[in-house]
Amino acid sequence: MSERPLVIAAPHPRTLEMIFTPDALARFRERYDILETTAGALEALPPDTLARARYLVGQPDLSDALLAAMTGLRAIVNVEGNFTDNMPYERCFERGIHVLVTSSVFAEPVAEIGLGMALSLHRQIAQADADFRRGDEVWGLDGNGSAQLLSSSRVGIVGFGDLGRCLNRLLAGFRAKVLVHDPWLPDSILADHGVEAVSLDALLSGADTVFVTASVTADNQHLFDADAFAAMKPGAAFVLLSRAGIVDFDAMREAAASGRIKVATDVFPDEPPAADDPVRSTPNMLLSAHRAGALTVAFQRMGDIVLDDLALMDRGLPPARARRAERETVRRMRSKPVSKS
Amino acid sequence: MSERPLVIAAPHPRTLEMIFTPDALARFRERYDILETTAGALEALPPDTLARARYLVGQPDLSDALLAAMTGLRAIVNVEGNFTDNMPYERCFERGIHVLVTSSVFAEPVAEIGLGMALSLHRQIAQADADFRRGDEVWGLDGNGSAQLLSSSRVGIVGFGDLGRCLNRLLAGFRAKVLVHDPWLPDSILADHGVEAVSLDALLSGADTVFVTASVTADNQHLFDADAFAAMKPGAAFVLLSRAGIVDFDAMREAAASGRIKVATDVFPDEPPAADDPVRSTPNMLLSAHRAGALTVAFQRMGDIVLDDLALMDRGLPPARARRAERETVRRMRSKPVSKS
Amino acid sequence: MSERPLVIAAPHPRTLEMIFTPDALARFRERYDILETTAGALEALPPDTLARARYLVGQPDLSDALLAAMTGLRAIVNVEGNFTDNMPYERCFERGIHVLVTSSVFAEPVAEIGLGMALSLHRQIAQADADFRRGDEVWGLDGNGSAQLLSSSRVGIVGFGDLGRCLNRLLAGFRAKVLVHDPWLPDSILADHGVEAVSLDALLSGADTVFVTASVTADNQHLFDADAFAAMKPGAAFVLLSRAGIVDFDAMREAAASGRIKVATDVFPDEPPAADDPVRSTPNMLLSAHRAGALTVAFQRMGDIVLDDLALMDRGLPPARARRAERETVRRMRSKPVSKS
Amino acid sequence: MSERPLVIAAPHPRTLEMIFTPDALARFRERYDILETTAGALEALPPDTLARARYLVGQPDLSDALLAAMTGLRAIVNVEGNFTDNMPYERCFERGIHVLVTSSVFAEPVAEIGLGMALSLHRQIAQADADFRRGDEVWGLDGNGSAQLLSSSRVGIVGFGDLGRCLNRLLAGFRAKVLVHDPWLPDSILADHGVEAVSLDALLSGADTVFVTASVTADNQHLFDADAFAAMKPGAAFVLLSRAGIVDFDAMREAAASGRIKVATDVFPDEPPAADDPVRSTPNMLLSAHRAGALTVAFQRMGDIVLDDLALMDRGLPPARARRAERETVRRMRSKPVSKS
């Protein structure tokens, strides 16, 4: 009988092959007994198997009874990216089971494309290429009427979690003034990152570029509406990187169509939008088909986090890489989980 | 009679209104007697006027005789951006006349668009927007087959003058390994900037992204030929930011067309290319109509440099902001000056 | 009857006047009902008072019964700096009571003096001043026989908590190679901070300067013994910033006395050491009377943390500034708490 | 007959063995014909030898005739560190002979000890060690009455050449507000380094720490007098790193003796001061016997600069590492050269 710790893996909609590199997966299989299963099949596992499980990798629906049966459980590691209301988190907190999520892997790819989108908007990189291919490009200074530099400009970041912090890091060389709005953090923490804490109004009216990185919560649906876009500086760029629910999408599209601001978005209320959705032909918009975070290399970093944090917990230490669910906020999230990766 | 120093201004193809903000121009006119003229009219100026000129702002053709007549001259400030073989530089050096150029103003706008182009190539930002508008966008992971992160990748910079250094600065937050090839600088200076000095071969075969920032000189025309592109890593990005003469343009276009590498270029052998030039329909290319540096805000920074350096020289101090022509290299440059801005 | 939340304050050995600036204390008193008390008097509080307490600021001995009586408690905030085995932490974790400590305030003052000590050792700043005052200073190059630069050298940091990270930040401008040993953290987290994870052996034999910032735990008492000092590079500096228990103090003193290494220490096994303790006359040592963290400004930052985190918890959000006790490690600490500040 | 270029070496008061590592010296001897000589013997060299010399490494007295005889000279490389009025610089400029100095090697060692001195003053590191050895140390908070943090404080730097810039770099991790006064540089260059250009008055009254790095010139002798010290913040630190001539030394000593400010100095009007000079017993002072720059490793970096820049000039390129003498300022310097290293 194996002496290796038991891991129950129910990673759907991910697969182990997706979240581990081949090398990392081999190490994972070497260190642990892995029982790969699905949410539906969990209930049917024998009680002693459930009792022996040290870790659950995945985010299956869990009943109170099922969690109670996993008497040796130390941690649940969500590899989808969002916490949803499908397990008894309070019981986990009481029992000292760590509830973890590996979503930090998306910060770097999303921040990079976000910065690329901002540069493309301010310098019309995509537009200029399309013009050139159609044969009506405009040369030199004449083609730069609305061009702006990011360097030494004012950049607003809404939400200062992994993604907002990564964006701030990527901006390090630009010497920009970074304004941040994050109601979940005290000003002092923002100051410690070298950014200025501001109200949402001050951010909207002050920033030449606005990056929206905040998750959708019960409190911020349609936070960015027509009034918000009207408050932005003329010619400013609005880059939506988190979820469509945080904006009034029609108002955003109209603000771009009017030419008042420039908009880039990776997310849409319905994905894909209909073939005749006006967003597909709106000028001053840069459209991306929910591709910002979905890089093979990002998913594979999830496995590294799993390996590192399980190794720490095996040694009786707390996990250090994955983000932990918080009692206070785990139920506030409103992001729809992805149905497929 | 005025006691203000005399500046002869012959800024063509720029104008004073272009290289100064209105405020800066007012200050310039307040501090100096400004005689605005053209290359052709210079010869006709009275000898005492020429003798009284302390500074020449511009890059007109200058004969030995004309320079000799400007007996009080302290500096010539080129506001076009390139030194050309149109004045007796040796005489200037002998006489201790500073020969200056304000081209550093272009570094930031060109570096920003270069970084934006690299991000666009690696994440297909422009391509994905065009696909979306045509209705055949690919969603999520499926759309990211060739996507690469700049973070923690290897970035090559060819040429480490103002532009290369600015690019390196913008990359600060990306934690990339920066490889630099610049035969005019010792390795120690590159190390001091935190980059690694490498041969051109090592740069081409090692970098995931290659930025070409080197000016064209007598020595490097067509430096990047078919062999160079073949030596690059598959899927790498090549971003041409300086002058078309440094590449074999057809070979570059073919390397992109073949899908082996991705290419972005701001410059072309003939500008504009013909309507039926194949470059206009080459895939894996990002096309920009010589727009990288030509921002109003960049030109206006020239005036700030002029004001700062003239103020220093007025006080008997050396200029500190504009770059100086070097005896050894001023005649090596082969960039065609712009005929209009 | 007050509607302000009730805070029980039992900050001994601190006082509220010590951990708050006058302004911050005024704000604290305005926002909360403050009941100042002592560990001994806690038991005597009426049950409804205990039940109404939302926060406990301080680190008094707490029995199970007392904690149970505080039914509305959201957080205990330790303002001494170390967790000791004087309260039922497990009950807190079960109930979701945050157990917090404000010790991060000491990181900056301790890191600064640590860096100052390292520079003083490598450049004999203190020694040279003493020589000068005695009239036997050695001038110029002759006085720099054992001098070393920190720039571009190899710096080892043992323990990478608040203090180790702050030291690494202060070193940013030195371009040093920073080697870190911290068995509680995966290599990936160290790499993310730009430092290299190494074994303790590799750190000792490779570093020109060793900073010890790790807390004393059950596992690391006398971690640095005669063998460890013998493994260090000749002429290297050893700077002890945490607790004396982590070193074999006699061995450390002898390593300095022998001239093989240079040593600075802020802590001693018995404080103060006896008047005739040989440490008081050991050469190649820099002695500091447990003064590294004890700055008025540091203590006062504790109050800012208290205010920020209580404000977050008042709004139903998790605390964000104070460090949390971890189930796994809270009982491993062996630091003696201070008896007075 | 050798085809290697001829270097005349007259490095007194340095020696080649002092300014080159053994490896670098071997490379130097391999690449060049080296003729080691002294100022006095130069005149006696045969005309064809003088005519063949491509480089002069050293700072010997040179007459017009001697310079004229060196018809092939490309550069004079000063390895003492200061330009003095002992050669016809104007002739060099006319002929396009580079006049170079390798003094940048001192920036790092001087900046490091300067930072160490500032930390020692603000935290009484040297004083506390002396107290401890005498048995009257003061423990903990009681011993920190006048302690100040450098982090987030205001730091003033007077003079922003190699040394001032290096200090600013070392301060990068401290998040200090850096105020700079340098009348030879426009504000824009200081802003580009992330520091704030201020008047000397604003610097003195605003800074918690003042570093003096400016060379002595005709204009700034005794720039820091009793009024200047009176204008400083009480408890501020004054760190003198350049030359004693820039301060009224008695006034500085008295300002320290009064306890109003803290002072560190590496330089003295007469070196060494007399045995009974009151400076030797002044409290609140940190004394260093002109040891700040005189590190073996610093001198040896001179040789690396020589090798790099000669290699560039051999290839017809301008030197890039050594600082160049400027026509406008070379004669303004008033530093006494060192008589011995």
Automatic annotation (TrEMBL), chains A, B, C, D:
Residues 332-341 have a biased composition (Basic residues). SUPFAM superfamilies: Formate/glycerate dehydrogenase catalytic domain-like, NAD(P)-binding Rossmann-fold domains. GO terms for molecular function: glyoxylate reductase (NADPH) activity; hydroxypyruvate reductase [NAD(P)H] activity; NAD binding. GO terms for cellular component: cytosol. Keywords: NAD, Oxidoreductase. Residues 321-341 are annotated as: Disordered. It comes from the Bacteria. InterPro entries: D-isomer_2-hydroxyacid_DH, D-isomer_DH_NAD-bd, NAD(P)-bd_dom_sf. Residues 115-292 form the D-isomer specific 2-hydroxyacid dehydrogenase NAD-binding domain. PANTHER family: 2-HYDROXYACID DEHYDROGENASE YGL185C-RELATED, 2-HYDROXYACID DEHYDROGENASE-RELATED. This is Hydroxyacid dehydrogenase. The lineage of its organism: Bacteria, Pseudomonadati, Pseudomonadota, Alphaproteobacteria, Hyphomicrobiales.
